[in-house]
Amino acid sequence: MSLPPTNFRPPFDITRASHLVLTARDLAKSRDFYTEVVGLKVSDETATTIHLRGVEERAHHSLTLKRTKEEPACERVGFRVFEEEDLEKAKAHFDRNGISAKFVNVPFQGRTLHASDAAGTPLEFCARMKTLPRTQTRTHEHKGAGALRLDHFQVLAPDVAAAAAFYIGLGFRVSDYYVAGERIIGAFLHRKDNPHDIVFLARSGPRFHHFGYIVPEMHHVVRALDCAGNLGFGESLEHGPGRHGHGHSYYVYLRDPDGHRLELLLPAVQIIDIDDEPMRYEVTGDNTNLWGLPPPRGWFEEASPLMGAKVTAPDRQGEPLTLEKYLFAKGPEAARPELVKKRA
Asked: Taking the mean position of all CA atoms in its chain, how far away is CA 277?
């Protein structure tokens, strides 16, 4: 199976992954995690909602947390379009293709369009958002990782090829994709000039796997982990630090107080030129990290629900190399309980 060619004349102009909305049971605890460990800035706060942004972001928010008594979930993932006119073009495109889309009012955002992608991921698009001063030079105020900006989303989907084709038709380019035989099991897609705005991995879905924030340097990752340990969030570390083999960056994965997964990563490689074509990788069952242990099984299997999305399983689901398998294969010495506890 192959992916369709990029549509270089898309029906409307999406510029980047912009923002997302998560629900949380304990807003105060989540606020502490995202401000003290991740280093986000609070833009606005009420008893039921917190808006946050990275230190170099002018847009009012890249993360919105809403209080809930239900199971925590991802309510929406958001993209920016270039102009207001693009919202009208988007609505017309979705209408032509039988995709339900409606305009809604969202605090601190301009006119906002709600729709869903081919996998069932709930989306929103806006061209305008209230702006605030960047704080990247106010380093004396920075906390934790000093996260700079939101970078990407990853979604689990039963049919990666169909999910990717939806975005390719909207002008997204593929930076990398993974195949098992002839089946596409992973795809990295982007509109801005790095490898990913949205990523799909083959699993039961749609479910929300993680979102990533860029941090300046590797010592900011270490500082985030030190802050987490000292503030009672030590067990939030799920996987890493390490370096992706095909993902172009150093990384660490954390789970917030409600179990939502967050990646902190360094700035990735640049992808702009027309001849920088997609890279195809065969999945062989080996560790895909350049260095660092494979992810634990929970990294592959656990994800946040996407609000209102119906989850289905793929026709076939592979068995990736997990941390547990890796340690078992290494034998009793590598599977010492203290090592497993340290690395899991």
From this structure: 22
